[in-house]
Every structure is written in C-alpha cells, then in structure tokens.
Amino acid sequence: MDLKSIKEDIVKNVYHLNANKKVPLHKHAEQDEIFYCMQGSGFGVLEDREVELKVGQAFIVRAGVMHSLRTDEELYVSSFLVPVLD
Question: What is the pLDDT of residues 54-65, one digit of tens each?
Fold first, then answer.
C-alpha cells in the first residue's frame, strides 16, 4: 500500500450552502465521501431518505451511492473524497 499516493488522492473541499443552493443527486464511483458540518444545519440526502446534519456531525456516503445536501438556512461543511482501496 502506497500511503503517499493515497494521501495525494484524497480530495478536500469546503462548501457553503443556503436555502437557494440546489445540489443535484450525484455519485462518486471510486470514492467514499465524508461530510463534516462546521456551522449551521441541514440534511444529507440519499435516494430514499434524509439524514439530519448538525454542527460536529458527519454524513458518510459510500462509493456508488446517489447523494446530495440541502438546507433551509446556512450550512458550512467540509468534504473529503477518499479513494476506496481494494
């Protein structure tokens, strides 16, 4: 296992969403995604349900699963795309 390569493949983002921002359902074929709520609240959206997301909580989506985020207020999340290892 090449740890340096794995570290380089992790994608880090920070998102600010509000009630007007619509994130379409999408998936990542080869990466799990971890969302961490930094401020505000909202929902992690899956095809069949929603998961409440509050400050200090995480929403984890396995590779290949359709997902999105939504909020009725302000939501700040960090996101980490982590490669799935065989």
Answer: 999 999 999 999
